[in-house]
Amino acid sequence: MDKTFTLDELKQYDGQDGRAAYVAVDGVVYDVSNVGPWAGGKHHGNTAGGDASQAILKSPHGKGVLAKLPRVGVLA
């Protein structure tokens, strides 16, 4: 069963100081901790610990990369 994250809970997963890095896209929460470009919780001006739904639409890779990421829950 998926864990349900509130936006406040998701903010704790910012990839800083050894914390995991999670982002939400279209209500699904993904773990980007082991994705090189997300090192330190930042990727092209985007920050882990939040909703990246709009940012991913503007990215060159689009949503295609999501299939490769571990799904860790859903956004409340």
TrEMBL record:
Name of the protein: Cytochrome b5 domain-containing protein
Pfam families: Cyt-b5 (PF00173)
Domain Cytochrome b5 heme-binding: 5-76
SMART domains xref list: Cyt-b5 (SM01117)
